[in-house]
Amino acid sequence: MSTILLSIDHFPAPALLVSESGVITECNLMAAELLKAPRSEVEGKPLDSLLVDLWFGRQNSTPVHALLSATPPETLLKQSSKTMDGRDVTVSISAGPSEGRTSVSYCIALSQGEAPGSSSQNFRDIVDASASAIIMCDATGAIRFASRAAGGLFGYDLDSLIGMCVDQLVPGKLKRHHKDYRIEFSKAMKPRAMGRKSKVTAVHKEGHEIPIEIVLTPVNEADAEIMCTIVDLTEHVATRTEISQKAKELEQLNAELSAFANSASHDLKAPLCSIEGLLSLCLEDLEAGDADELKKNLEEALLISRSNASKVEKIIELAQAGQAKLHKERFSLRADIVEIWRSLRSVGSAGAVLEFDLRHGDIVNLERAAMNMILANLLSNALRYGDPEKPSHVIRISSRRENNQLQMVVGDNGRGISGGNLQRVFTYFSRFDELSNEGVGLALVRKQIERLGGAISVHSVEGQGTEFSFLIPLEEREE
Amino acid sequence: MKIPVMVIDDETVDRYTAKRRLDKHGGFEEVVEVCSGDQFLERHCTEKNGLQPHRPLLILIDINMPGRNGFETIAELEKRQKLGIAPQAVVVMMFTSSGNPKDKAAAASFSLVRGYIEKPLDAAGAEELYQIYRAAFPNIVDETA
Q1: Which residue among A95, A235, A379, A478 is the one 20 to 30 A from A191 at the CA level?
Q2: Domain end position, chosen among A268, A292, A320
Q3: Are residues A349 and A315 in the same domain?
């Protein structure tokens, strides 16, 4: 007896030994715990006094011991049962003990929970360990099983998922047909995967749709039971969207770069052609001995060379804008505007007046060099395009701080920009008349503002004036 | 006979070079200089019986100019010809520093445009202009040749 006792004590689950007559002869600690009674109380009692509803198939009313004795050894029987206090247990009756013994005993393993079998807890553990959500449905579409991940994915607690019709997890437009699809599937009962190529979504408890990939696997053909393995593609879709967004940005950048290279190369070539023309004439003037014309043309060629060297510098500046972030500093925007205005005025346009309406609270924390460049360009344009027919040349600069943005407007009562040209003011190398410089300034202004995360727009009425408005985000908790 | 010629270009120095080359060639009348496409349209294509030279006008036009560029100017010229407010007999030549195939293709798409001359204009270029004009109007050149 001691060998058997030992073996049942070491059995890794609640277990009982039952004699041929159905009396419990041994009980291990786990079984005692499960039955909530000391071993001494369990041992010696008939099995059916502790577990109810035991039946083993053929004869429902047969007493347990009769059944046991009729059961051929070697056979494993499994049965759902309940303890006396109503808890579900699963009873597995295994073959009799070792051969050659005088009396036959049965080893009965118990496990908590309902059928189908002692493996159900293991099954749940395994399924819950999976990162994918898993649900099982029966032929009617009712959910019979849901893994913890499924509950998380759809936003339900597991109890409310069980018994729910799977159609409820299908988005509205498909819901109507889903029943038909299920019926079709249960006829074919062939595994099917969806969502990798086509877009498949499920509906969360809160109503939003979740992109998913789903694999349907028939597991029990007779009952048309289907296992659905579901992978949440939300992050995958987000990553894909981000990548395609990045690709679009790169494409745009590439187009911008090639437009830039095109205009830059053309604009650098043009003055060289002019110089070439002049120098070939110089040679002829030299041969003809026309010193005055020769001098004049050489000076002209020199002038073009010089002005284009400075243009190349501008282009380099433009090409470098929009790269590394420069350091920010706190400075008085008003003081800088006054300084810029002073230096611009010293060049000319004596009659112009600058009106201030600065309400941004002055000290700002921004890239000072970039801000200076932006304002210098806008103010210099406003100065250059004054309308000689008006009695006064007025330039207004105003600012506000709203929603953590610096909003500025530089306006003038100058000659204005015609509608056709207005579209092109921010394009590289767009020049409109004899007052235009290299056609780089406003392109550079826009590029800098966009690099700082802002935006610029222009409004102009020919003959009345022009207004450039831009905004630049400021950092949180800034004064 | 000499060919009446106009140079439309915003670059003073390029107009100067062209003028000297064309003068030196001897086959052209004194060059009419125009600073931009817009100025050309404004001055010469606004009224009936405006600019109607005694012979077809040779026009050298730059592409990259402030305001309307060369192509936009030619498109507008075509429109105004139909309205009868622009010179009817013209030989238009693109006159540019651009060797860009896109610009060449754009030039070829205009029926008014007969050629594409890259800057700077040299002696060979001036002769080429002369020959293109002759080919376009053999009768006019021959009758006084």
Answers
A1: A235
A2: A320
A3: no
Instruction: Name every chain A residue with its beta carbon within 8 A of the beta carbon of B11.
Output: 270, 274
The answer on A335 and A465 residing in a single domain is: yes
Domain residues for the domain of A23 are 2-114
Residue A2 has pLDDT above 50, yes or no: no
In angstroms, what CA-CA distances link A98 with A69, A104, A244? 16, 9, 69
| Same domain membership, residue A191 and residue A134 | yes
Both tokens assigned to A210? 């979740």
Residue of A406, A409, A387 lying closest to A396 (CA atoms): A409
**pLDDT tens digits, A104-128:** 567 777 777 654 444 566 677 777 7
For residues A431 and A416, membership in a common domain is answered with yes
- For A394-433, the pLDDT digits (tens) are 999 999 998 889 999 999 998 888 877 787 788 766 666 6
Length of chain A: 479
A30 and A106 fall within a common domain: yes
Element (H, E) at A126: helix A119-129
- Count of domains for chain A: 4
Asked if A277's CB is within 8 angstroms of B97's CB, the reply is no
* DSSP codes joined into one string, A347-377: TS-TTEEEEEEEES-S-EEE-HHHHHHHHHH
Helix, coil or strand: residue A392: coil
A204 assigned to some structural domain: yes
Give the C-alpha separation, A148 to A131, whole Å: 10
A296/B contact by beta carbon, under 8 A: no
Window 9-48 of B: residues touching A by CB (8 A cutoff) are: 10-11, 13-14, 16-17, 20, 35-36
What ipTM describes this predicted complex? 0.87
Q: Are residues A356 and A394 in the same domain?
A: yes
